[in-house]
Write a structure and sequence with these properties.
This protein has about 500 residues and is of the alpha/beta class. It is about 45% helix and about 5% strand. The longest helix has 25 residues. About 45% of the residues are buried. The structure holds flavin-adenine dinucleotide and iron/sulfur cluster (SF4).
Length: about 500
């Protein structure tokens, strides 16, 4: 049958079985559409990276002799959504079969099912051949449990894939090296530059501008730094193993104002658009470790493997187990509008100024910046999770809903009431000061809870627990906060709450 096969922008897996044989009856189609620019406002680097990587991918497929239809955003006959474009092309070229790969987003999954339903030709769907697990594996693993514990899923994965195992036991007799890891950066080892590339994407940006795509964030289009091809993704992985892996775990939670990525791999974009697979990443990291045990400790490697076979697969599984309900969960009933400085970084709180500024400049921040600075503040301040999700889904180059919403609404905002994390990731200034150098350069005083220049994180932290006592008091993992609140002198508590109310009343002015 004359077949049309759709490749979505995050399905750039050149090792997919689809491409192993050339077939004159098969045509691939890739579409740049306004539909995908408008479901949320994106960072300009995210738009450019997706389009540039898609164009590269199409070019590679054509070079290998496959037939490819590529619709650019500004092509005259582009109808700007998947359904209309597909229907027009199927009719015009007389295709008798339509196939697609399982989308990772619920929204697109529904849309493609509905398109297939309304087509009069045969349709079929293939796996993306990217993840270690299937969509419903996590759901099946936890059954009807209310809480999903990442650690038990992770151990199951280690066993199942036989990664870092010694028979049935974990290598080194420990599943978790967190106690050795997660140090503040102490200058004991030199920092390495992040690997960057140097693409000129000015023509692409001009096209996006001409089309009136609404975006935010900053870009140097003449020197675009992100990996845009499989080859560059492989180079990034190689660079990571040689230069960053030896200290990845040790400093994975550290933050520095003059070095945005420390020892992080920055592979999330390449991985999420599937230019490189988690299987390849894990295989390479493990073999590199095998050959370099004198310079790389097990703790570093375990820390990294946990992110890829643990967190990443886990989040995807939670997504498919919980959508579409997950999208509207708001356990803490947070309703405050997002402060305007999320869009320009203009706040006197130095940690947020730096982390948001960095996100706007680079479309990237590392896990702890996302979780313990921006996410933590958003939750303490009671920002509406819809606003928080829209911001995260727009700003990060790696943000695709399956991995964005689970991390944001679930892990960082506790809006799921504890499906993903057993307690809210709330902290006062002490944690930020311990893990970063932000406080040293701040207008606010991290040691002060009340009064002039008291760090907002401190009073907001206690206000958060106080105002949510009904919902959180019985959580066994938060006991200490309530013990402390109970012991607090009434005058002291009143002052703290007053300070918090003052800040909450003027979030835009912080
Ligand atoms: P590294 O620190 O080098 O980690 C290696 C890899 O592990 C990453 O590339 C990623 O694939 C995986 N990984 C690590 N942590 C997680 C996690 N919590 N969930 C899923 N995969 C993980 N990641 C995204 O890919 N897209 C998002 O939209 C996204 N939004 C986030 C929002 C919040 C509030 C938080 C707390 C985290 C979010 N993350 C997201 C997870 C994590 O912050 C990023 O994957 C990471 O910062 C990407 O940089 P890296 O490749 O250098 O990661
Ligand atoms: Fe952030 Fe408070 Fe530290 Fe300032 S003092 S950098 S606001 S934690």
């Amino acid at each position: 049958a004359k077949t049309l096969r759709l490749i979505l922008g995050d399905q750039l897996n050149s090792n997919h079985s689809w491409y192993q044989h050339k077939n004159d009856n098969v045509t691939y189609i890739m579409l740049e559409v306004m539909q995908e620019q408008e479901y949320v406002k994106h960072h300009v680097q995210k738009i450019l990276a997706f389009f540039a990587a898609m164009r590269n991918f199409a070019h590679q497929l054509t070079k290998k002799g496959h037939q490819v239809i590529y619709l650019k955003l500004n092509d005259e006959d582009n109808q700007q959504d998947f359904e209309q474009n597909l229907k027009r092309i199927i009719k015009k070229e007389d295709f008798s079969r339509f196939e697609y790969q399982l989308p990772d987003e619920y929204r697109l999954d529904e849309q493609l099912k509905s398109i297939c339903h309304s087509l009069t030709i045969d349709t079929g769907v293939a796996d993306t051949e990217h993840f270690f697990t299937e969509r419903l594996d996590v759901q099946n693993f936890f059954g009807h449990k209310k809480r999903y514990l990442m650690e038990s899923f992770y151990r199951h994965m280690r066993n199942k894939l036989h990664i870092l195992m010694q028979g049935d036991d974990p290598l080194g007799n420990r599943w978790n090296f967190d106690a050795d890891n997660r140090k503040k950066y102490d200058g004991k080892v030199p920092l390495e530059d992040a690997i960057t590339f140097d693409h000129d994407v000015t023509a692409l940006k001009e096209m996006v501008d001409r089309m009136g795509v609404k975006y935010f964030g900053n870009v140097d289009a003449e020197h675009f730094p992100w990996p845009l091809s499989r080859q560059e993704a492989l180079k990034s992985l190689q660079y990571f193993c040689h230069n960053l892996l030896p200290y990845f775990g040790t400093y994975e939670d550290a933050m520095l104002q003059e070095h945005i990525s420390l020892f992080h791999s920055r592979l999330s974009f390449a991985q999420n658009v599937k230019m490189i697979s988690p299987v390849e990443i894990v295989t390479k990291v493990l073999s590199h470790y095998e050959q370099n045990k004198d310079t790389i400790s097990l703790a570093q490697v375990e820390g990294y493997i946990r992110q890829v076979i643990g967190w990443r697969e886990f989040m995807r599984g939670v997504y498919w187990a919980q959508m579409p309900d997950f999208e509207s969960l708001n356990f803490l009933n947070h309703k405050t509008e997002i402060p305007h400085w999320y869009w320009d970084g203009n706040t006197k709180m130095n940690c947020l100024h730096k982390c948001i500024g960095q996100s706007l400049d680079h479309a990237w921040a590392h896990h702890i910046q996302r979780l313990m600075v921006i996410g933590n503040f958003s939750m303490l301040a009671g920002i509406n999770p819809d606003d928080v999700d829209a911001w995260y889904l727009g700003v990060y180059i790696d943000a695709i809903q399956w991995v964005e919403i689970t991390n944001t609404r679930g892990m960082s905002q506790f809006a799921d009431g504890g499906i993903i994390g057993s307690k809210p990731y709330a902290s006062s200034a002490a944690y930020i000061n311990k893990m970063s150098d932000y406080c040293k350069h701040c207008h606010y005083d991290y040691k002060k809870k009340v009064g002039d220049r008291a760090c907002p994180f401190n009073s907001l932290y206690w206000n958060f627990f106080e105002r949510n006592a009904e919902k959180l008091l019985n959580n066994p993992r938060i006991g200490m906060a309530y013990v402390t609140l109970k012991k607090m002198k009434p005058e002291e508590k009143a002052l703290l709450m007053e300070q918090a109310e003052k800040y909450l009343g003027d979030l835009n002015g912080l």
